[in-house]
């Protein structure tokens, strides 16, 4: 399940329960079937925009309330269940663990760069700093015309307002965590 579907699942259930509505009552108010609502709440379906518009209209909430990352004290994400946000077979997979949310000036991503693979990233805008920690392999990070080798257990920080490349020149998969901080 991707992070947006997970957000919608958690938020829809929370909104419905807060309004003291059963699935049947919610179906009546929104025009979305009870079975579809249950599938959305379990994260088993990718609801269409049309379906989401019916839900927000019927529940009288904003679409952003359904899509934003739910505020929870504990939030567990399983590597086995997370779906890559971006991927090119044989090159890389990018996983969104904690996307940007209002009030938290950072994002956290995981990346797998496969042997001989490379991932290009454009500028992340002014006042954005990226922190990279390598957990497996050796990453070659190319930024501002220089290449830096970052090995397992090492970390690197840079202003990410310029294009950059994450490359794996080795024979084993490079795993890394990337944290974006918005200053």
Describe this structure in words.
The strands form two sheets. The protein has a six-stranded antiparallel β-sheet, with no helix packed on it. A four-stranded antiparallel β-sheet has the order 4-9-6-7, with no helix packed on it. It contains five helices and ten strands; from the N terminus they run αααααββββββββββ. It is elongated and about 60 Å long. A hairpin with a 3-residue loop joins β1 (86-88) and β2 (92-98). The protein has helices at 3-18, 23-30, 34-42, 49-59, 63-67, and strands at 86-88, 92-98, 106-113, 118-121, 128-136, 138-143, 146-151, 155-159, 164-167, 174-182. The model has no long low-confidence stretch (mean pLDDT 92). It folds into two domains: 3-67, lambda repressor-like DNA-binding domains (434 Repressor (Amino-terminal Domain)), CATH 1.10.260.40; 86-182, Jelly Rolls (Sandwich). The protein is an alpha+beta fold and 183 residues long.
CATH superfamily of the largest domain: Jelly Rolls
Q: If classified by CATH, what would the architecture of the largest domain be?
A: Sandwich
Number of strands: 10
Number of H/I helices: 5
Give me some keywords for this one.
alpha+beta; Jelly Rolls; 183 residues; 434 Repressor (Amino-terminal Domain); elongated; 5 helices; 10 strands
């Amino acid at each position: 399940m991707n992070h947006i579907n997970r957000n919608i699942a958690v938020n829809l259930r929370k909104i419905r329960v807060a309004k003291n509505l059963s699935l049947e009552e919610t179906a009546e108010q929104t025009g979305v079937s009870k079975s579809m609502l249950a599938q959305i709440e379990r994260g088993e379906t990718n609801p269409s925009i049309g379906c989401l518009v019916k839900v927000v209209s019927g529940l009288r909430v904003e679409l952003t309330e359904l899509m934003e990352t739910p505020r929870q004290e504990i939030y567990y994400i399983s590597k086995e269940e997370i779906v890559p946000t971006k991927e090119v077979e044989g090159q890389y997979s990018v996983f969104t663990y904690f996307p940007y949310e209002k009030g938290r000036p950072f994002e956290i991503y995981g990346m797998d760069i496969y042997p001989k693979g490379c991932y290009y990233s454009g500028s992340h805008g002014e006042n954005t700093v990226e922190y990279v920690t390598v957990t497996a392999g050796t990453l070659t990070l190319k930024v501002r015309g220089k290449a830096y080798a970052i090995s397992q257990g090492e970390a690197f920080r840079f202003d990410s307002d310029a294009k950059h490349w994450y490359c794996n020149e080795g024979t084993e998969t490079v795993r890394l965590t990337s944290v974006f901080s918005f200053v």
